[in-house]
Amino acid sequence: MTEKELRAAVQGLMPRAKQDLAELVSYKSVYDARQFPIEECEKAAQWVANAFAAEGLTDVGLHETSDGSKAVVARRPGPPGAPHVLLYCHYDVQPPLDEKAWRTPVWQLTEKDGRWYGRGAADCKGNIVMHLTALRALRQIGGDDFPVGITLVAEGSEEQGAGGLEDFVPGHADLLRADTILVCDCGNFAVGVPTFTETLRGNVNVVVTIETLAGEMHSGMFGGAAPDALAALIHVLATLRDKDGNTTVSGLSNDQKWDGVQYPEDQFRADAGVLDGVDLLGSGTVADMLWARPALTVLGIDAPKVVGSAAAIQPRAAARINLRIPPGTDPQQALKALTAHLESNTPWNAKVTVEKEATGAPFRSATGGPARTAMEAAFEASYGRPATTQGQGGSIPLCNVFADTYPDAEIMLMGVEEPKCLIHAPNESVDPTEIEHMALAEALFLASYRRTT
Questions:
Q1: What residues are labeled active site?
Q2: Sequence-ordered list of residues with C-beta below 8 angstroms from that of 90, at least 6 positions apart, any chain
Q3: What is the pLDDT of residues 323-360, one digit of tens each?
Q4: What is 7-51 written as a DSSP string?
Q5: Structural domains of the chain, with CATH
Q6: Distance from the CA of 82 to the CA of which of 33, 47, 150, 301 falls in 20 to 30 A?
């Protein structure tokens, strides 16, 4: 199996990759029955199972997890003595948010300016198609037998953080056991720049609720003395950042430094769509703020909308808060610190409750090892340039579960997602050249990894 043969095979498979992605994007697979029918997730799961079964994987099954979602697992043993590789992805997606903000149909893959748009096109259905394309290229050149053992696991509730697969893995350790685990829910520093993600921030999600009155009261008759729950909430939230935008949760360090490749400020401004004249947050470098320090975001607030609001003092207000924590920070300690900060900074003896939604530990992957060496060579062959490294502000709690369950396995984080994909936001898209290059890199890795062990 030569690089030239695999490259030609992957190129020839790209029209099929587009067709596959169009089918996957059409499923509204948001694992939240309050927003979309769960049947959409079940259809997507069955599509994934059928697709990988058609490419030679056996022992294909849909396994129910503790949160009710279905994990697709498909396996095929390799030749005697060959290593085994686990390919991870997820088929559930984020909700579309404001559909009016989309420039293309949310659930219809649409090509525009050379990119493919649609919810999940990158995160993470693009990675599913990448895996499929790599396996198809290998079969096209080498026949039905793969050079290594392969297990595919596709999660069904990753975006909701419900922990279904995290609970599933330890109890099914033999089913998913592998020498190398490719967690393909990350991506490159930029289009055309092959990248290993080496660190992930963990997360702490809470909902803080403040109550002050038995009910709404007229602001003209009672305003000035009656405690306003919304004003109290605004006060609390304001204590979570300083004037420079640094996260200031009492008890958490916020001066850590990122010692790896830096993220140029002008590139970040372009990637993030920062408006002209608006300052970036924090007293550190962009890389410090993104990958090395805690970062707090207010995800949502329960309060009256401007249109339809009345001249009334609010008796209750709530906010959903997301705290990202860097490697070295324990999520339970961070939860305790955040809770104490919210409670101690609530004014006027207002009633405050802090409800934990979820926590996830940070992660740092090991470097070195035969799989990493083989993947570095595959990246360079596919992209024509050496790979770089980065951290990621997001969290994938499953990585720590994999590390604990399979302490001897090499874990590598990679994928088709890059800043222009706008994952989790309106107008999500994927650059098809990333699917092509990543599929080729994965195929080259799977073909060469056997020779390095």
A1: 92, 158
A2: 124, 154, 155, 156, 157, 158, 159, 185
A3: 999 999 999 999 999 999 999 999 999 999 999 998 88
A4: HHHHHHHHHHHHHHHHHHHTS---S-TTTS-HHHHHHHHHHHHHH
A5: 3-200+363-452 (3.40.630.10), 202-256+293-360 (3.30.70.360)
A6: 47
